[in-house]
Amino acid sequence: VKNIWSFCENVGRVLTQFDDTKHSLRMWPIVRSFGKDMINITEKLRSDKELLELLPKVSTERECLKRLIMFQAIFTALKEDKDQCLDAIIGDGGGVSLVISKSIIENLYYLSGNELELEEQRNIGCVDPDTRYERAKAFTFHRAYAEVCGSLVALLLRENIHWENTAMRDIVRHGFIVSAFKRKLDIRKTIEGAAINFNLTLRNRSSKGSLNHLTRDLSLSFFRRTGELLLVCGSSCHLDNFGTMLFNSMLHAASTLPPTETVSVNTFTKAVAYRFILTPEAIGVYNPVASDGLQHAIDDRILCSEVLRNDDLHEQKSVLGFREWAMDNFLVHLLKNQELSSPMRLITLKLLTCMIETYFSDQIAPSQKIHNAGGKLASIVTYSKLFHSLKECLSNAITSNTWDAVFILELFVCARNLLALPISAGNITNKSTKSETLLSWACTSSKSTTNLDAGSEHSAYIFEFSRWLNACGKLLQNQSTTGALRDFITRVNSREGTERYTLDNAASNNIEIRQISSSFQTLATLEKVLSFRRAKRVHSSNPYAKNFSNTLCGDKILVSKGSLRAIEEFSNCFAGHAT
Fold first, then answer.
1. Backbone phi, psi, residue 422, to 5°
2. Are 229 and 139 in contact (CB under 8 A)?
């Protein structure tokens, strides 16, 4: 249907005259009221067409954008509809969310069959100019429709539209979104499995083959809506496991991105970090502009609605609460997980670093950042947990022989940025105030014999961690000494009791090994006081465990210009405060 706004306006006028005797008189004013709402919505949209100018006047992309804008306006009206009148009008046992979801799913299935037919034509040799033109035109529409579908689904969840039918909600959340992030999206199989339960009308059902273009386009659409879906995680992580599952699948998707992928790892980490740290206005200022016209227009439209929430205290608390959960629990758990894959470990470190750098950036005004109740990124307790997870992360990587130069670089950069975070409230209100950093505070507190407040154990832990990592860095700077570090940490993590810290004659002659041994003992004592749990270890008695003493680092390169620079910068940072 072209001229969708005119179509909706005409539907609204018909509804204002509603007097169908088949329905009860009680429904008449409800239907007529919704008709007036549709007329008002279309009149308002017509008065603000600036966004449409980003796209050609006669184009598939423009028509798709107009549908998204119309639905977004309807979603806003639904949020104000406390009595869920529109659900009562539509009926169908599921209300608005079910009707929209069914429509999207049925159309996706039809387009998937259309793609398979086009691919079959190409395979049998239909490559004449007319066929190639039709194929290119079809794929252009598929891509535009997939972009709008991904955005619509994200908006449905983001706006927390009432889902009378939770089974359909779960198909949308798990069958499409989570599966897309996990790179396991099978559009046709998912829809066919739901067809009977939801009485779906499926066209092009006989088409067979491998679906590539539509699967990729829909997955990328979800990926581009990471910021909005992240807030869906926040609203769900305390209600069920969907929030945790979705956030984990997002990280998994980023960790498996090939270098040639359209959406880069940096794009993902910035999207998450900006959503966690910045206000909606700041996200609009600092977010990169999409080169694709439709994507740019959709981004602008959704961002405008996010800006309108800026004064919503509940919204701000929700974002802050999710950030605290992510830093205090989720990221800490991931970094300590011994079974975590190397790519997931790297993306977690990159994300944490990006969050810290965004919060610490002088280019972004303090008023554009979201601060916790203490005026900081996180609490001292959370910082301590993160340092403990970094210690476990390095230890796990060493004992499992999954470390390399890239991992060393990312871990030392992350640790240095975390230690450089300001902890004084003066930095938030007055940028000229010299702020105390986490490392300087920890060093000062560790030297004090009188300042034994509630945070003394945390400051002692942070300072001792920095000493431990500094000593590890000095051993990692030379390939010949990494073996001694690996052997000692492997022994510490595979044994129990004080004997694991005992040094042989060769190790006792190395000042860095002696420092690491001393720090390990101090950290272990503080971890008991702070109730930090150690990650499960691979014990040497396990017959299936690797023989680390006989496995050096294989062909792994632990020393590179980047890792050496990261270690040196960390060492300089530590030396500037420890003396």
1. -75, 140
2. no
